[in-house]
Amino acid sequence: MAHVTDKPTMKRIVQRPILAWVPAGFFKQSLTLNLNECGQRLPKKFGTLDLGLNLGTNRPNVDLIDASIPLDRQGWYHGSISRIDAEKILRPLSEGSFLVRNSESTRQDYSLTLKSAKGFMHMRIQRDADSGQFILGQFSRPFPTIPDMIRHFCLNRLPVRGAEHMCLLEPVIAQIL
């Protein structure tokens, strides 16, 4: 190890890039893909360099989903709008934007309309006659309320064919005209 004895030499050492002193291979490029949850970013490991790639770990706006508020008072519940109107609302918005509306085909059901990379998805929310709980599509677990369901799918991937890679990211608040 060399000793620094004069100021000009010390100045040259300070001006060197700091990475020159880090052992080769210390910083590794890191890409984390979490296939289960959407709402959390996994903790970074020491010695990794975050590339800013965020595949499915976006932080949804969960604060707008208060499960203690009834559905008809939720801002993202749009009531009796058509599938066409729901698509018009979502068209200029980003992938993962969603709203809940009354089903056009079955009076007691609801529809979750979601913007995806390929267009729009309209998923039926049904109330189970026996338990009174709500089910999204055919394969979701039951939920006591639709706000509970929406909050869950803001943090977890959708159990619907064609949307398995997606979470609900941005609730679209109804505008009163």
UniProtKB/TrEMBL annotation:
It comes from Anopheles melas. InterPro entries: SH2 (IPR000980), SH2_dom_sf (IPR036860), SH2_domain_adapters (IPR051846). Residues 76-172 form the SH2 domain. SMART domains: SH2. One of its GO terms (molecular function) is phosphotyrosine residue binding. CDD domains: SH2_SHB_SHD_SHE_SHF_like (cd09945). It holds the Pfam family SH2. This is SH2 domain-containing adapter protein D. May function as an adapter protein. Keywords: Phosphoprotein, SH2 domain. Transmembrane segments: none annotated. The keyword Protein transport does not apply. The keyword Acyltransferase does not apply.
